[in-house]
Amino acid sequence: MIWRTSRRTIGLDRTLVMAILNVTPDSFSDGGRFASLDEAVKQTERLISEGADILDVGGESTRPGSARVSADEEVKRVVPVIEAVAKRFDVPVSIDTSKAEVARAAIDAGAEIVNDISGFIFDPLLASVCAETDAGAVLMHLRGSFESMHSQEPVTDVIAEVARGWRESLGIAASAGVESDRVALDIGIGFGKTLAQNLELIAKLDKLVDEFSRYPILVGASRKSFIGKILDGSPPDQRLGGSLAAATVAVWNGARIVRVHDVAETARAVRLTEALKQEL
What we know:
This protein is an alpha/beta fold. The chain has a single domain (2-277), classed as Dihydropteroate synthase-like (TIM Barrel). Helix content is 43%, strand content 15%. It is built from ten helices and ten strands. The strands form two sheets. It has an eight-stranded parallel β-barrel with strand order 3-4-5-6-7-8-9-10, surrounded by six helices. Helix 3 links the parallel strand 5 (93-96) and strand 6. Helix 3 (100-109) runs parallel beside helix 4. The longest helix is centred in the middle third of the chain and has 19 residues, at 158-176. The protein is globular and about 40 Å long.
């Protein structure tokens, strides 16, 4: 399996570690820490040295209760960072956005993957931007609007619901001309799912892997609130153990990409998980 972006072909013979770089003042885990250009570049260098395969840059928080920012503000936050990273490092850069205008500016600055939490639902033009630029795309499952995505009533069958949402997003991608080998799929942990459903999606990920075998599947469980609930209310920066457990089980069940905050620890855990799987 391969994943093509606008700048390269990425092999998926091993699990990729996508490192999170939030340049927002209000991210749930690291808001404001890397808002300055110098800090963002230093953090990028550290993440790469720890084993990051992809850098995912985000300029708008999607935590519960967050407010939308304008496209102009989002561009101001992410473009300088992407330009600096693209000049200094040979690492694939992903732009975490659901706005076509932001995606185009980010791609012009050096991004080669668009990571859209809405799976091309929020902005119909985003799929066309990906098709026109040959960018890779991550299509995440969620339900509702930006404002209501964390307050949706849970569905009865979350596996079937994620499959349904992916099929809708893949249809939009195909209609816009996005080639299938440029698409990865994200199960959307923490977006409109109950604690039990988040656990079920990771524990039964192999069912979705089998059904959508043409596409690499991404799991982003790092420091999410369901981990805190299980671990006696631990805050985001104390959820490493739970985050590693979630990533390990996801990889065991077929995830090809894990999106994480703690790169060094996750990269080592992933390597061991893959070594164990080879002995089956």
